Amino acid sequence: MDTLQIKSILEKIKTVKVAVYGDFCLDAYWIMDTRKSEVSIETGLQAESVAKHYYSPGGAANVIANLSALQPAQLKVIGVVGDDIHGRELAAQLQNLGADTSSLFIQKEHFQTYAYLKRYIEGVEEPRIDFGVYNKRSEEIDELILNSLKSALETHDAVIFNQQVVGSITNDSFIEKANALFEQYNDKIILVDSRHFNDRFSNVYRKVNDVEAAHLNGVQVEPRTMLPRATVLEYGQALFAQSQKPVFVTCGARGITAFDSTGYHEHLGLQLTAQLDTVGAGDTVISAITLCLAAGISPNEAAEFANFAAAVTVQKLFITGTANGEEILAISQDPNYIYQADLAENPRQAVYLPDSETELCDPSVLEKLGHIKYAVFDHDGTISTLRHGWEEIMEPVMMKAILGDSYDTIDAAGFKKAQRETQDFIHKTTGIQTIYQMEGLVNMVREAGYVPEDQILDKFQYKQIYNDALMELVNKRMAKLQAGELDWEDYTMKGAVAFLHELKERGVVMYLASGTDVDDVRHEATVLGYADLFDGGIYGALREYTKFSKKMIIERIIRDNNLNGNELAVFGDGPDEIREGRRFGGISIGITSNEVQRHGHNFDKRPRLVKAGAQLIIPDFSQYRKLVSLLFKEEEISETV
C-alpha cells in the first residue's frame, strides 16, 4: 500500500459516521516515588507518594480514542458508567475526543465505572487495582442501550460492538435483543469484538485473535498459544463460510489476515526495534478496520491499513495509545516485515538440503539461483570475529546509562527488568549502525526515568563510551595478530575467505558493508588480509550517519547496475542486511555463526534471521564448495534438493 492509497483512505474516513457500544473504562496510571514518603502520624503506617498520575480511555473508550485520532465525521458513544468520579472523568475525556455522549447512561446503583489503576514503582508495574468487578447492569439501562443501538444502526455508517469486561453483560435478554437488531439491519456494517460472548452473536463482521478463532471453531486452546499459520487460515475460512461476512483474525506480532468472498489476504506483522506495549492494539485494529469498511475500502486494504496502525500503537508506552494519519503514513513508508514466524519459532520445521548444513527457509529461492553477479557481505560475525563479544560490552554500557546512580542500589526485580529490555533491544538491532543503537539508548534512558534529564547524554557521547570499551578488546586481539601469536584464521569464520576467493573467480563484484565505523572496518579487513577482494568497496558508519546504511548500499548497487533482484546475494548474521536483501528481491543468506568456535550454529541467531527474511541459512562457510555449487546452479537443483 503506497502513500497515495493511504492518503486516499484517510480522506474517505473523514466522511464516516460511526457508533460504539461497549465497556467504557478508565485507565489510571500512578507513577510512584517513595523517596519523599512519610510515616503517617495518625496510623504509624508508611505512606506511598505519587510523583505523577494521569488517566486515559480504556476498553471501548480507547476504541473511541482510536477512532477520533483518524478524524471521522461523527462519533457516538453507547454505554454506561457509574455515578462516580471515574465516570465523570471518563465522560469528560470522551467529550474532549469529539464524541457524542448523549447515550452514555449513568447507573446510580450497583454499578461503578470500570477503572483500572496501574501503579509503577521504579518502572515496574505493581498488581493492578480494579473497580467495577461486581457490577450488575439493570434491565432499564439495557433497554436504553438497545434503543440507542437501533438509532445508530439507522443513522450511522457502522457500529462497533465491543465487549471486554467479564460479566459486563448480565442479562441474557440483552444479547437476544441485540441479535434481533443485527438481523433486522443485516445490511449494515456491524463489527463485533467480544471477549466472552463471541459465539452468541450472528449477522456480524468479526475481529478475533487466533485463539478466539479456534474457540469459535469449537477448539479449546490456552491463551497466548501460537497457532500455526495453516491452522489460522483454516479457522478463518470456516468462520467466513459460516457467516458470509468478512472476518479479521489478528495474530499478534505475526500480523492480520482478512477473510472475505475473494479468499484470504495475509498481512505480515512488522519487525519493530523499540520497546513495545501491546495493550490496546486490538482497539486500534477494530477502529481502523471499521472506518475503512464504512468508507468503502475492501477488507484486504482495511486489514493492511489496520496492520500499520497497530504497529504505531504498540510502540507507545505507559498509555493505551492511538495512531493518527500522519503516524500511519510514516510507518508505512519503509516497513520491516516479519517473515515465516512459525518457522522462526519452531526449528523442528527446518528443512535442510541433502548432505548439507544449509537450511532452505524459502523454497521459492531455488528458482532465483544461478544468476548472481553482485554480493554484499556484513562483516562482524559474518566474516570477521575480531569484535566477537560486542554484545557483552554493549549490555553493561547500556545498563549503566539507563539506571544511572541506581545501578548499584536498584532491587533485583528492577535490575532484571532493565536487563531483559536491554538484551531484547540489542538482539533486535544487531547489524544496524551503532549510532542508531545509541539513539535507541537515549530513548530508553529517558523512558526509564532513573537519570535526570539534564544528565542524559546524547547518542554520540554514549557511542564514544561504548566504542572505547569495545576497542580495548579489539586492540588486544589485533596486538596478538601483529605479534604473530595468532593469525587471520583465528579471527575469521571457517571457510569465509576461501568462499570470497571462489566468488571472485566467478567474476562476482563484492561489497563489504558494516554498522561499524568505516575506518575501523577497512583497517580490520586489511589486517585480516581480504580487503582487496571487495572491489565494489568497503562501507561503514560515517560521522554524518544518515549518509550510510546497508539499505542505501543495496539500493545503489541495484540501481547503478540495473540489476534484477536475483543477480544480488546478501550475506549476514544480523537481521538488517537480510531484511534489505529480501526487500529488494535479492537472495538473502543468513549466517547463524558461532563466533567462539568460528564454525557450527549459534541457534540463538536463527529466529531473527528467519523473521528478517533469510531464504537460506548456513552456520559458516565450511561447506563453501557446496554453497557455490548451489548458488550458481553448477548442479541440477533436482539433484541438490
From TrEMBL:
**Which Gene Ontology terms cover its molecular function?**
kinase activity
Record's keyword terms, sorted? Kinase, Transferase
Span of the signal peptide: none
The protein's superkingdom reads Bacteria
Q: Identify the residues that the record assigns to the Carbohydrate kinase PfkB domain, covering every copy.
A: 18-316
What PANTHER family does the record tag this protein with?
Answer: BIFUNCTIONAL PROTEIN HLDE
Q: Output this protein's name.
A: PfkB family carbohydrate kinase
Provide the species name: Runella salmonicolor
